[in-house]
Design brief:
Blueprint lengths: L3 E4 L2 E3 L5 E7 L6 E9 L6 E7 L5 E4 L7 E6 L4 E6 L8 E9 L4 E3 L3 E5 L2
Length: 118
């Protein structure tokens, strides 16, 4: 049973937009951090954006996506979103959703491919 499921990836032209969604199973409790990481071929997985705290007041972005990506969360639905605008070829990667709980849980989704190409 997949506890964390991403959706919304795909092929988009440079300058385009995509919105990723991540749904967490209702069996995961006490989530304090939700976020997105990505991994391009031959590279290490890197942080894209995270939103921390039950009120979501602490938000962190990678420098490479600041001003173009927006992370948001819906606590009631256990969901986190990543709105990606002005996409570039270098944004091409597999994007992973990550959830962390107050009890030490660390959950990852299976990943969704984002390809930016003309």
């Amino acid at each position: 049973v997949q506890l964390v499921v991403e959706s919304g990836g795909g092929l988009v032209q440079p300058g385009g937009s995509l919105r990723l969604s991540c749904a967490a199973s209702g069996s995961i409790f006490g989530i304090y951090a939700m976020g997105w990481y990505r991994q391009a071929p031959g590279q290490q997985r890197e942080l894209v954006a995270t939103i921390t705290g039950s009120s979501g007041r602490i938000i962190q972005y990678a420098d490479s996506v600041k001003g173009r990506f927006t992370v948001s969360r819906d606590n009631a639905k256990n969901r986190v979103y990543l709105q990606m605008n002005s996409l570039k070829a270098e944004d091409t990667a597999v994007y992973y959703c990550n959830l962390r709980t107050y009890s030490g849980g660390d959950y990852w989704g299976q990943g969704t491919q984002v390809t930016v190409s003309s």
